[in-house]
Amino acid sequence: MSWGIEDEQRRKDILALMELGVKLNMANPNHINEVTKSTNGCWMDQIYGMMRCDICDLNDQCPVREEQEWQAYLKQNNIVVEKKS
User: Fold this and answer.
1) Per-residue pLDDT tens for 17-66?
2) Residue 53 falls within a domain, yes or no?
3) What do you get for the CA distance between the two ends of the chain, in Å?
4) Which of 14, 15, 45, 49 could form a disulfide with 38 if both were Cys (CB 3.0 to 4.6 A apart)?
5) What is each CA distance from 41 to 27, 68, 79, in whole angstroms?
6) Rounded to whole angstroms, how far apart are CA atoms 24 and 46?
7) Is residue 72 part of a domain?
């Protein structure tokens, strides 16, 4: 695997995340099945309780990143979205 091996800090962060996953699953083997859906759509927040976009392997399909890019686009192009009640 090439995930973060070139970057020592990223490698440490990924290993720490893996260790957290092991601890969560050792404490509750059904953790994955019992977690509640994240309010922001981030799978990492849902499973681990934290967002780490810098080490996320699904960053290309991330709803949080897409929303941030969309809001930046709207702001850059002076577009205001009106919500009808």
Assistant:
1) 899 999 999 999 998 888 888 888 888 888 888 888 888 877 778 888 88
2) yes
3) 50
4) 45
5) 24, 13, 24
6) 12
7) yes
